[in-house]
Design brief:
- This protein has helices at residues 2-14, 16-36, 51-62, 88-102, 141-156, 176-193, 196-224, 230-258, 263-290, 298-329, 347-355, 359-369, 371-386, 407-419, 439-451, 484-504, 513-547, 551-576, 581-584, 596-624, 629-656, 664-696, 705-710, 730-734; strands at 72-78, 107-111, 125-132, 160-165, 394-395, 427-432, 456-459, 463-464, 470-477, 507-511, 592-593.
- By secondary structure, it is of the alpha+beta class.
- It has four domains: 1-42 and 172-356, Multidrug efflux transporter AcrB transmembrane domain (Multidrug efflux transporter AcrB transmembrane fold), CATH 1.20.1640; 64-165, Alpha-Beta Plaits, CATH 3.30.70.100; 367-407 and 512-717, Multidrug efflux transporter AcrB transmembrane fold (Up-down Bundle), CATH 1.20.1640.10; 427-501, Alpha-Beta Plaits (2-Layer Sandwich).
Length: 737
């Protein structure tokens, strides 16, 4: 592989105009496709195999046109102090608002508070229910605007009006956070390379890669039902790995220049060695993202595959466009150790800097002298951070987890005040009595048995369909939607339904947003272990091929698991326990988002293996070329620590920018990924890895002979390049740094 990539790098350097033209043309083509593609709207949301989804599908069949999974809104009214909602003026204002709410092509029905018995016992709070024909993800902006305008008219009449439900939920938008992340990346790259030109190359290629990837997703969104949420993960991961991969190749190019090689030769060797690491690092990220399909949530699968496609583009750009741009840059990209005038560089300073061991060398030497102490300190520190993970509670957020500044949260609080906390999470029980001899008796039996369950406040009379073989019953719990008490009630109703099925052959299914959230959480929990085994297992096999070792990949996988557990512990401490919640802007503590563990495993694993491959391949290269194990570790840190540190700081800055989001889920994801990258890059890869390798010595690179013969020789360390000219041709005299 190293020889092939070496030739590819030299070819891209020589044919830079052709390579640049291809990538610019692809960017333009993707951009034109995105601009002319039909509006994608939002992807349909379904959770195959869950009881809640089966109930929705049944409702679609037995109650045609009812839009069971359509968006809902609750417009909550509160009378001024000393007044009631039944007062003539307040009633007139509400009825006018109800009439306005009925307008709109996507509105299915609107329930009047006074005819629907939706006024609190004390008469101060009332609500109107709005049902839509499409899901919240598919709702048009015009419908949301009409909803908010109607509420504002009621406010103008003197009422307090807030809007709950999922109708106002929108896809989190990207914006300033990415700009902040790119700005921090630019500063770190300038400090790392000491040159605006060298720093600009990773940023430019990363942005081009993300542009192609996101534009392609946008162009195909309507045809493939990708939806607007799919591009968010692709943008985040594409930007992250795009900068990482380009940073690694440019850094190796400068190191090759410092050894006296011609620029074309240096570009070829950079792609042949660092490019090999980029290919395998990219493969681990692709495995982690495509592996999300095992969860069997279509939206998550599409997001993972789309992001994986963006990673593939980032790898290809790093292997071809980076050497092409290095050809354009010429002498403006300096050899390693020689900085530009931007940072006060000079040849004398460069020689002095090269004579002095860098920070990576000094740190690795320290770890090798005290490996046991460093290893124990790192493991115990991460272990302590992971302790809160033992108390992890998973769930999906509702309006009660929104900031108090949002209308959804204020509507949630008003409904809890007027009707009880369980009113925000009603359960819909669907009874299919088609195979039963007396459906009406079955419906009554289901309602009566549910009334006798603990934690039930109210049960509405059964509402059968026209055929009379299926009915819906609404159940109001006495606890809030995200509580374990409500989850227990859902399981109790399902247990009751199992008994009824045995007696009457009728199916009793529980659905609604609360039940759907519970089912999604359970599905994600059940998929976590298979996903972990699949991703870590495949990556373990891949790393065996890369490092030709058993213990090094094993150490990489165990270190990753330790950093993820520590990161989950930090998430629990902040978002569930409330530690440092004020500093992080967490207004409401509660269960950790169900998707968080599996999402962190996928994203962090890919990035963690990037750092592992970048750092350890240089150690492997030094070892293969004859250095002793301890010295190989020092050499790896000498050339790789600065790059990995810069990449980690950039990633932490990008992810940390999301902590400022008003969306609690986005805030949690940003914090979790940022702290996970910090733990993995600076504790696991920078401390635990060299300590373990120092303790193992030559054993770290042991591989059974039979396995060594069976494995393909991918030559990541570039051993095959030693037989090449080494740049001792006429090019060396033409372009010296």
């Amino acid at each position: 592989m190293a020889t092939f990539l070496y030739k590819l790098g030299r070819l891209a350097f020589r044919r830079r105009h052709f390579v640049a033209l291809i990538w610019v043309a692809l960017l333009a083509l993707a951009g034109v496709g995105a601009a002319n593609a039909p509006a994608a709207g939002n992807s349909s949301f379904s959770i195959p195999g869950t009881e809640a989804q089966k109930a929705f599908d049944l409702l679609e069949q037995r109650f045609p046109g009812a839009s069971a999974d359509g968006a809902t809104a609750r417009v909550v009214f509160k009378a001024p102090d000393g007044q009631k909602m039944t007062d003539a003026a307040n009633k007139a204002a509400v009825e006018k608002t109800v009439d306005e709410l009925k307008d709109g092509s996507e509105v299915s029905r609107v329930t009047d508070p006074y005819t629907g018995k939706a006024v609190s016992k004390d008469g101060t709070i009332a609500y109107a229910s709005v049902s839509y024909k499409v899901s919240a993800l598919e709702l048009e902006d015009a419908s949301r605007d009409a909803l908010e305008d109607a509420a504002q008219d009621a406010r103008d009449a003197g009422l307090t009006v807030e809007i709950g439900g999922d109708a106002l939920s929108t896809t989190p938008e990207t914006g300033a956070t990415e700009v902040i992340g790119i700005a921090v990346a630019a500063v770190v790259l300038v400090i790392t390379f000491g040159s605006l030109i060298a720093a600009g190359l990773p940023l430019l290629t990363a942005l081009i890669g993300v542009g192609i990837g996101v534009s392609t997703i946008t162009a195909l969104a309507s045809a493939l039902d990708l939806g607007s949420t799919t591009s968010i993960l692709a943008m985040m991961i594409g930007l992250a790995v795009g900068i990482d991969y380009a940073l690694f190749i440019v850094s190796r190019y400068r190191a090759e220049l410092a050894e006296g090689r011609a620029r074309e030769e240096a570009a070829g060797r950079a792609v042949g060695t660092a490019g090999s690491a980029v290919v395998f690092a990219g493969l681990t990220v692709v495995i982690a993202l495509v592996g999300l399909s095992v969860v069997n949530i279509p939206m998550l699968t599409k997001m993972g595959i789309a992001a994986a496609g963006t990673v593939v583009i980032a790898v290809l750009i790093a292997l071809t466009m980076i050497p092409a741009l290095l050809g354009y840059a010429g002498r403006r990209v300096k050899p390693a150790g020689e900085k530009s005038r931007l940072l006060g560089g000079g040849r004398a300073k460069a020689r002095a800097a090269q004579a002095k061991p860098n920070m990576g060398t000094r740190w690795a030497s320290f770890v090798i002298r005290r490996p046991v102490a460093v290893l124990l300190l790192g493991v115990l520190g991460l272990g302590a951070a992971a302790v809160p993970a033992a108390s992890l509670e998973l769930g999906l957020g509702d309006d009660g987890s929104q900031p108090t500044s949002t209308t959804q949260r204020r509507a949630y609080d008003l409904l809890s005040e007027g009707f009880g906390p369980g009113f925000n999470g009603p359960l819909m029980v669907v009874t299919d009595a088609k195979k039963s001899g007396d459906p009406q008796t079955v419906f009554t039996k289901v309602a009566d048995e549910i009334k006798g369950l603990e934690g039930v406040v109210a049960v509405t009379p059964p509402s059968p369909n026209e055929a009379g073989d299926t009915a819906t019953i609404t159940v109001i719990p006495d606890s809030k939607p995200s509580s374990t008490t409500t989850e227990d009630l859902v399981h109790a109703i399902r247990d009751t339904g199992a008994g009824i099925k045995a007696d009457t052959d009728a199916n009793v299914l529980v659905t609604g947003s609360t039940a759907m959230n519970i089912d999604v959480s359970q599905k994600l929990n059940d998929a976590l272990l298979p996903y972990l085994v699949l991703v870590v297992g495949l990556a373990f096999l891949l790393l065996i091929v890369v490092f030709r070792s058993i213990l090094v990949p094993l150490k990489a996988a165990l270190g990753f698991l330790l950093s993820v557990l520590a990161a989950l512990g930090a998430v629990v401490a902040v978002f569930q326990w409330g530690w440092l919640s004020g500093l992080m802007g967490v207004e409401e503590t509660g269960p950790v988002m169900s998707m968080m563990p599996i999402f962190m495993v996928g994203v962090v694993f890919g990035l963690a293996m990037d750092y592992e491959v970048f750092l350890v391949t240089r150690m492997r290269e030094a070892y293969v070329h004859g250095e002793k194990p301890g010295q190989a570790v020092v050499t790896g840190f000498k050339h790789g620590a600065r790059v990995v540190t810069a990449a980690a700081v950039i990633m932490i800055a990008v992810f940390a920018g999301f902590i400022g989001s008003s969306e609690s889920m986005v805030k949690m994801i940003g914090f979790g990924l940022a702290i996970a990258v910090f733990f993995d890059a600076f504790v696991v890869r920078m401390a635990i890895v060299p300590a373990v390798l120092a303790l193992l010595g030559k054993k770290a690179w042991w591989l059974p002979k039979w396995l060594d013969r069976a494995l393909p020789n991918v030559d990541v360390e570039g051993e095959g390049l030693r037989t090449l000219s080494g740049g001792k041709d006429e090019d060396r005299d033409l372009v010296r740094a």
